[in-house]
Design brief:
GO terms for molecular function: ATP binding; ATP hydrolysis activity; nucleic acid binding. This protein is α/β, with parallel strands linked by helices and 590 residues long. Helix content is 37%, strand content 18%. It folds into four domains: 156 residues, Rossmann fold; 37 residues; 196 residues, P-loop containing nucleotide triphosphate hydrolases (Rossmann fold), CATH 3.40.50.300; 63 residues, no CATH class. A hairpin with a 4-residue loop joins β10 and β11.
C-alpha cells in the first residue's frame, strides 16, 4: 500500500488524512481518542467507505489482516487451540466437508453406475479445488504458526479457555497470520498484557518482514516497534519518520505549552485555596465562602473530572478483610491460582494489584465483590451498612447496548434521579459535547466506550472503588484525567493495571502476586521498584527518551472518613515504606 488519503464529510473525525505505509514500515497511529485512528484501520480493511479521497494499493490482491481490540470476543473458548486456529480456513473446511459428503453418497451407491460416475466427477472437481487451495498442507501451516507463537505440540489439544490473556493474544495473532497477509493492522494489541507478553510481542513484530499499522496508547511499545509515527489531531494527520521518542522531540514546543497551561491551572487552584483557608474565619468569611463556591463551580465544570464524594462509612477498621484465601480453576490446568492469601484494605488505602497475566488478579477482584465464591478461605466486607462499592470490570465497555446513544445510556443509568442539565455537564466532563452525545455506542471507538462506562459509574457515589484495568483503550489525556480524579477521590481504592505509570500516580500500596502468594508492599510503585532491583532495571530500560520515569507519589490533601489505626496489618512478606511522601508530580505527555 503506497498511500492513504481520506476525507470524511459531515463528521469531525477525519478531514484531511494523507499518509503511507510501505515495505518495511511499522506505522504507529497516535492521538486523542475520537481522533479517527480505529476508523482509519476500518477504512483500510474495507469495512467503511470514505466519503471522498482514495486508497491507493500497490497491488489489487493486497491482503490485509486486522487484529481488533475485541479479538478475544471472537475466540471460541470451548474449542481446542488447534481447532481455533483451523477455524480460519472456512472455505477450505467447506470443500473438505463436501468431499466427505460425496464419499458418503458414493458408499451408498450400489448398482447405479450413472449416479456413481456423477459423484466421482464431482469428487474429482472438489479434489482439484482442494489441491488448488492447499488443503492438504493446512495441518502443517497450523503447526508452524503454533511453533512461531511459542505453543508446544501438546498444547494444541488444550481448550482456548485454559490460556491466560497474554497467550490468547498469541492465538489471535496466530489466526490472522494464517491468512498470510501482506499488511498487518493492529488495534491496541497490548491491552490486558503484562510486561513479559508485551516484550514478546515487541520482539515478534520487529522480526517480521510484514508492513504494519498499529494503534496503541502504550508509548514504550510504540517507541520500540514503530519506524514511523502518524499523529491524528482534529481530523488531520501529520507524519513523522522515526520512533515515538523522535516524534516527541519534534512536538516538544506543543508539549511544553500544554504543561504550562496545566501548571498554571493548578497554581490558580492552590492560590485560591490558600486565600480561602486564610480568611474563612473572620471579617472576610463571607467573601471566602463566595470564592469557595466559585472555585467549586469552576472545578465541577468541564475542565475537571471528579468522582462523587464517598458516602460516610461505619466504624469498621477494615473495608475488606481476607483470611486464608485459596482459589483456582481445574479447567485451566492450574489447580491453584493463589493460596494462603491474607489481605486487609483499610479506609483511605489506595492499593494496586500487580502481577503477570494469568496469576489471578481479576479473579481476586471478582471474589472481593462477590462475583465468584472462593474455593476456601474467608472474605469480609466492613464499613457497617454504609459500604457502597463501584466495580469496573475489565470488559465493562463491552456490556453497553450498541444500539443506544451515549445520552440514552447515561439517562438510563441515572434512573430519573439526575436532571438533564447535570447529565449533559457530566457527559461534557468525559468529552462528550454537542451532537456527540447522540452517537450510537456501536459507532464509538474503544476509548470512547470506556469513557461512557466510566461516566455511567459516576452516577453512583461509592466509598470503595474496585477498578479492573480502567485505562485500557484510554488515550494519554484521558488517562491523565482519570489519574487526577483518583488522586482527589476521598474513598478507598483497589485497582488492577499493567500501566506502571498510572499505578505510580494513584496507588500508595502495592500488592503483588508472587509464587501464588499475595505480597504487600507498604509504599508506592517507586518504593516497590526500590525493593525489586531486577524489576526496576527492566522497567527503567523501557523509559521513553525525553519523558520522566517513575517518581514517588504525591497526593493532594483530601479529607478521608478514617478512624485512628490500632495496628499495621501485614500479609505475607510485608515491607515497610512511605505511602504518600514524594517530591515530584510527573505528567504524562502526549
Amino acid at each position: 500500500m503506497e498511500k492513504i488519503a481520506l476525507t470524511f464529510k459531515n463528521q469531525d473525525v477525519l478531514k484531511d488524512c494523507s499518509w503511507s505505509v510501505q515495505t518495511g514500515d511499522r506505522v504507529g497511529l497516535v492521538g486523542a481518542n475520537g481522533g479517527g485512528k480505529t476508523t482509519q484501520l476500518r477504512v483500510l480493511y474495507g469495512e467503511l467507505e470514505p466519503d471522498s479521497g482514495d486508497i491507493v494499493k500497490s497491488s489489487a490482491d493486497l491482503r490485509l489482516a486486522f487484529l481488533r481490540q475485541e479479538f478475544v470476543d471472537d475466540l471460541v473458548l470451548t474449542r481446542t487451540l488447534k481447532e481455533e486456529l483451523m477455524s480460519v480456513f472456512g472455505e477450505e473446511a467447506k470443500v473438505l466437508s463436501e468431499i466427505e459428503e460425496a464419499e458418503n453418497e458414493l458408499s451408498q451407491c450400489k448398482d447405479d453406475m450413472e449416479k456413481m460416475q456423477t459423484i466421482l466427477d464431482r469428487m474429482q472437481e472438489l479434489q482439484n479445488k482442494a489441491d488448488s487451495m492447499g488443503v492438504t498442507g493446512l495441518d502443517a501451516r497450523v503447526e508452524r504458526i503454533m511453533n512461531l507463537m511459542g505453543f508446544s505440540p501438546e498444547e494444541g489439544d488444550q481448550l482456548v479457555a485454559a490460556f491466560s490473556g497474554g497467550w490468547k493474544m498469541r492465538i489471535g495473532l496466530g489466526k490472522i497470520l494464517l491468512t498470510e497477509p501482506n499488511i498487518l493492522l493492529l488495534d491496541e494489541p497490548t491491552n490486558h498484557l503484562d510486561l513479559e507478553s508485551i516484550e514478546w510481542m515487541e520482539s515478534f513484530l520487529i522480526n517480521q518482514n510484514i508492513p504494519m499499522v498499529i494503534v496503541s496508547h502504550d508509548r514504550e511499545f510504540l517507541d520500540r516497534v514503530c519506524t514511523k509515527i502518524v499523529d491524528c489531531e482534529q481530523g488531520v494527520t501529520n507524519t513523522y519518520d522515526g520512533n515515538y521518542s523522535r516524534f516527541l522531540k519534534l512536538k516538544k514546543e506543543r508539549m511544553e505549552a500544554w504543561q504550562k497551561s496545566y501548571d498554571n491551572q493548578m497554581k490558580k487552584v492552590k492560590a485560591e485555596k490558600d486565600w480561602i483557608n486564610r480568611f474563612k474565619v473572620g471579617a472576610q468569611a463571607s467573601q471566602a465562602a463566595s470564592r469557595q463556591a466559585k472555585l467549586e463551580k469552576w472545578m465541577a465544570s468541564e475542565e475537571f473530572f471528579r468522582f462523587p464524594s464517598a458516602p460516610r462509612m461505619g466504624n469498621a477498621e477494615a473495608v475488606v478483610n481476607v483470611k486464608n484465601l485459596e482459589h483456582g480453576y481445574e479447567m485451566q490446568g492450574k489447580e491453584i491460582l493463589f493460596k494462603d492469601v491474607e489481605f486487609n484494605l483499610e479506609k483511605g488505602d489506595r492499593v494496586a494489584l500487580i502481577g503477570p497475566n494469568g496469576c489471578g488478579k481479576s479473579t481476586f477482584l471478582r471474589l472481593i465483590v462477590g462475583k465468584e465464591e472462593p474455593r476456601s478461605g474467608e472474605i469480609k466486607l466492613g464499613g457497617g451498612m454504609n459500604l457502597a462499592v463501584n466495580y469496573y470490570e475489565q470488559n465493562q465497555a463491552d456490556v453497553l447496548d450498541p444500539e443506544m446513544t451515549v445520552l440514552e445510556v447515561i439517562k438510563e443509568a441515572s434512573d430519573g434521579s439526575v436532571e438533564y442539565e447535570e447529565i449533559r455537564k457530566l457527559l461534557g466532563q468525559f468529552l462528550f459535547k454537542g451532537d456527540t452525545v447522540e452517537k450510537k455506542i456501536a459507532m464509538l471507538s474503544g476509548g470512547e466506550k470506556a469513557r461512557v462506562a466510566l461516566c455511567r459509574m459516576m452516577l453512583r457515589p461509592a466509598n470503595l472503588l474496585v477498578l479492573d484495568e480502567p485505562t485500557n483503550h484510554l488515550d494519554i489525556p484521558a488517562k491523565e484525567m482519570l489519574e487526577e480524579a483518583l488522586k482527589f477521590y476521598d474513598g478507598t481504592l483497589l485497582v488492577i493495571s499493567h500501566d506502571r505509570y498510572f499505578v505510580s500516580q494513584v496507588a500508595n500500596i502495592i500488592a503483588a502476586f508472587e509464587d501464588k502468594k499475595l505480597v504487600r508492599y507498604n509504599g508506592d510503585y517507586k518504593h516497590y521498584m526500590d525493593q525489586n532491583e531486577k524489576w526496576a532495571k527492566q522497567v527503567e530500560s523501557r523509559y521513553v527518551d525525553g519523558l520522566e520515569g517513575i517518581q514517588e507519589l504525591v497526593l493532594p490533601e483530601v479529607e478521608i472518613d478514617k478512624p485512628k489505626k490500632t495496628k499495621n496489618f501485614g500479609g505475607s512478606a510485608v515491607t515497610s515504606g512511605r505511602k504518600d511522601k514524594g517530591v515530584k508530580n510527573a505528567k504524562r505527555m502526549q
